[in-house]
Amino acid sequence: MPLISVVIPVYNGEKTIRETLESLLNQTFTDFEALVINDGSKDATLDVVSSFKDSRIKVFSYPNSGPSASRNRGIALSSGEYVSFLDADDLWTPDKLEAQLQALQAYPEAVLAYSWTDFINESNQFLRRGSYINVTGDVYKHLLLTDFLENGSNPLVRKQALVEVGVFDESLTHGEDWDLWLRLAAKYHFVAVPSAQILYRVYASSSSANVPKMETGSLSVLNRAFSQAPSLEYLKPICLANLYKYLTFKIMQGLPVRPKSLIAARYLWNAVKNDPSLLQKHAIRPVLLKIAIAVFLPHRIVLRLFTQDNIRMLTNVDDLLMCVQLEPF
Question: Which domains does the chain have, with CATH numbers?
Fold first, then answer.
């Protein structure tokens, strides 16, 4: 029986699943099973997976049900003492499983080990580093402020803890991983592996498409968490400010267009409303400039402006993430 079960949900992942599986098979820790949960793919995903002749890879196919249902199916099928999740377009560094397993074995009170994340594009080029938070023990307040695990491909979890707190909430279309991490953190300790071991892929074509759904899902997660921990209500303004700073950043990535810039203005207002000190930060100026350009100028002029390097530099919104508050009071 393998020690670790790696659950890999995939839907139409023919372009990336090979590299993802290679990053798994290149792990320095080898006692694992790879449960590929094919979520009704209509492309050549199964052909790519079947080209791997490794007995640790097992494939299960179902009608399309979404990533949460696929992860839950993988958990139900898993036989390992530990479970990890790897999305079909993300990558791991070779030492990821070994380092996280060692961290959990060294800290028996913890049920989840997490590492740091770097963000990459479709060509595997580095885009930006993640939050690089290093918190071990009771992390619940920190996790309320922001989902510092940052993606579902990050943690290694003791399976028994999932049995006790439950699996992914399939009613949530966004934020379902944050919801599960919070439920785990409410009862158990986490342990950090301070090394960038997850390469999370970001697609330029979809950078803002799902942001309104992300807002809805994240608000549901926060409202549920605060309803179960009313003594932490004092943290809610910080949590909301952090959420809306991130949503503003997310929707304003890339070329600005008027409809999403109007949404960004609302997000930014919610961020300022919950954290008025943001008005004094330099990071807000590029955001305001980018929104103004998209809202008040004809789109043909916007297109022309954003071919210029100096305009792209003046409207770079990345520094807004530096305004996210990572420490509770």
Answer: 4-202 (3.90.550.10), 208-323 (no CATH)
